[in-house]
Amino acid sequence: MAGARGGMAAGSVGRGRTRWGLFAAVMALPMLIVAGLTAVVIRFMTSDYPLGGEPEQVPCAEALEFGGAKLPDGAYGGQCTVQTWLDTSYHAEFRMPRADVRKWLTDTYPRGPQPGTEFCDHGAGLCLNLNSSEAPPPPGADAVTVNVTYVDATTALVRFSAFTV
User: Fold this and answer.
1) Is residue 12 part of a domain?
2) In a domain, 67, yes or no
3) Which end of the chain, N or C, is less packed with Cβ atoms under 10 Å?
4) How many structural domains are present in the chain?
5) What are the φ/ψ torsions at residue 93 (nearest 5 degrees)?
6) 3-state DSSP helix/strand/coil percent for the chain, to nearest 5?
7) Distances (CA, A) of 46 to 25, 41, 42, 85, 121
């Protein structure tokens, strides 16, 4: 009698019946979207790095090598990190003998500018910036900055950064 009923096949839903699975999926979709957006908002509100790229500890040799340098003799107390997401940024901070700072900088970057006091970070007594055609950074990095703060008569605190832009 399939012909008398309009040709409905076995197992098909007749007129006036609801497809509950499809209905439930359509009704759940807005709730899933709201839940996902809520999770994204919470991540942005509670994380310093919501898109990733949190700083990670690395050996200081790796951080300095990215900027074409090596850890100087007599250096100690090194803390070094890398941050990667869209760009790569290495930071190194260490102490070294104050008397060796200028020689280390000029030996490390013989074609760079002479270390000076122009464009230094606040509190730095000496700096070096490699970020232009006149003072090009080493291959791999787009810029290198070194800021030196004299702690006392014998100690210098070096803050080194090498990064891409």
Assistant:
1) no
2) yes
3) N
4) 1
5) -135, 125
6) 25, 25, 45
7) 31, 9, 6, 19, 30
- State the Cα–Cα distance between residues 83 and 165, nearest whole angstrom: 12
The pLDDT tens digits of the residues spanning 23-80 come to 888 888 888 888 888 877 777 777 666 666 678 999 999 999 999 999 999 999 999 9
Identify the DSSP state of 99.
G
CA nearest to 137, candidates 111, 104, 100? 111
CB contact set of 127 (below 8 Å; sequence gap of 6+): 115, 116, 117, 118, 119, 120, 121, 145, 146, 147, 148
Structure tokens that stand for 9 in this block: 């096949």
C-beta separation of 156 from 128 below 8 A? no
Tokens representing residue 96 in the block: 């070294």
**Strand 76-84 to 143-150 pairing:** unpaired
pLDDT in tens, 99-148: 999 999 999 999 889 999 988 999 999 999 998 887 888 888 999 999 99
Residue 93 CA to residue 148 CA, distance in Å, equals: 10
3-state secondary structure of 17: coil
**C-alpha angle 91-142-47 in degrees, rounded to nearest 5:** 45
Note down the domain range covering 78: 56-163
